[in-house]
């Protein structure tokens, strides 16, 4: 009944938004909506821009602009380029973007962990907010579950670095990732792509766009990804690190005049891959049952192999040209998801430290924008609304003590925002931009924790479990509001050269710790505060040598305050204490360099470099059950933040067999990084390099493509996640999760 009520409310709000469109929008106008695109060709315009040096158009500031003109440090990667280089999902962006970390979360196959410039959120538990916002066609994806997007039906991906609080609002404190899908156009087009590779990988992707009338087109894209595991569960025989995903997207686009564009789109992703249980990094005394496996991709987990993640959504977008200078845009969307999973923290056949879990969430968002495009002034004014609920439950099973702690709860969020961002051309060379956003969040958190005697609670199948102490049982509400401004100055001494300086603020909303234990930490019922950042940036964007060399430089400094840090530590009483600290303050500064050379149509080269220096100035936390916070800044570091990231590649092409063949070798490097704020030598990852290579042959008419992609050629082993629960009661459970080994994939694609 609750979901039905929400759906009805969503439809009513949607209808109200559309009803508010002035009648003038229905008249014919020569003004095209800002983001209307032509039908995709075999090689899209974005890809052509990257390879030939033509202008790349982005919508980072909610309106179409040349990427050089945007005073924001950002990377733009086309979907075609990602496909050609064998990118399996959105995490491949970390190889092409400085100071970015994108990884699949511990124990999952489709939950995203994102950090940019040291800012992010590692804990994917329901109720926690991400620090890097993810958007699919301007629709905010509030939860990380199901956010590891596969690369299909994508025009381009825009990665905006630094706080984007003015235009994108809450929870873009580290940046934003915009996943822009292809528009259908008015011509029949389609694509079928099949791939086969290592570990019996078999991928099949199909897309089609069909014009029904001169003004109405429909389209669909379906992807099936299947792969055996990189390793084996030595207890159950199941694959470990396998992939079993089916995803689909359907859309209808209506454009009765040049001034009107309406799109209805739906997407659904089902991930039935086995859970990733990780591998033990240390033993537990001399007990062979706890010994590390020979392969880092193997496990001895005995909790089971059931895992299911469903993410789906529906959106309605309308763009209406009201005049030569004004465009009205409405974006209505509903998304929901469910996750059933299990995590075996001890990685043995025993229930020493097991966690079965269930998550569920839904969200409705409505955004209204009024865009102005004048000769000297451009900008956008908007209103935003979000209504969301995230809930779940999990058991923490301590088999050696024959006890279980059930944790369950939910967090309801209503968020309201008003924003504006405008640019003024003071002269032909000097531009000033200013923006402001006001956000108000109302949150209600409910948390329940209870001890049971027995292996698992009744919620997860053990009806005979004996109820014990209720550790947490509360419902509380809090409101948070914040103003996030942004100011920038751009000086363009000539065409295709932009020198800019900017200052902006961002924040991540406060909330309630869904793991909070009121016995260990009674103040958990009060929740935690928002975290904030204030960031300064100097940059240069330019094209040189007759547009054969493109260079982006950015230097930044950020003051980061009240950072939300999730701490989970073994407790002397035999349990696991979890609490969220607002950690104090930190300074972060660094530089980013991106270069692209296109000396001819037959050769191009790309390179990027990122440097991040992140240091805590104050980190207040409670130690050993104390009641007075202690400053431990000199003992804490930034997680998932390598000091250096770098990448380099080139593409050489030549005519071959009536078409064009291109070869692209690529090297990416990341320096040492820690997985948590407390350095853990057994878990932390040393610096490493990955070597990839791809070869593509495209027929002269662009209809056929044959490719070979080789990834991690050196077969590097590198950790992307882990857990740290030392001690006899927990089976000395220190486990790691690893990135993919060396793989080879062959692809054949037909476009029409």
TrEMBL record:
GO cellular component: cell outer membrane
Limits of the TonB-dependent receptor plug domain: 67-176
Pfam family of the protein (one): Plug
Residues in the signal sequence: 1-25
UniProt entry keywords in alphabetical sequence: Cell outer membrane, Ion transport, Iron, Iron transport, Membrane, Receptor, Signal, TonB box, Transmembrane, Transmembrane beta strand, Transport
Gene3D superfamilies associated with the record: TonB-dependent receptor, beta-barrel domain
Composition skew (Low complexity), residue ranges: 27-50
Principal subcellular localization: membrane
Region (Disordered): 27-52
Domain spans labelled TonB-dependent receptor-like beta-barrel: 277-713
UniProt subcellular location: Cell outer membrane
GO biological process: iron ion transport
Classification via CDD domains: ligand_gated_channel
Membrane topology, record value: Multi-pass membrane protein
Family assignment from sequence similarity: Belongs to the TonB-dependent receptor family.
Name by which UniProt lists this protein: TonB-dependent receptor
Organism: Sphingomonas ginsenosidimutans
Taxonomic classification: Bacteria, Pseudomonadati, Pseudomonadota, Alphaproteobacteria, Sphingomonadales
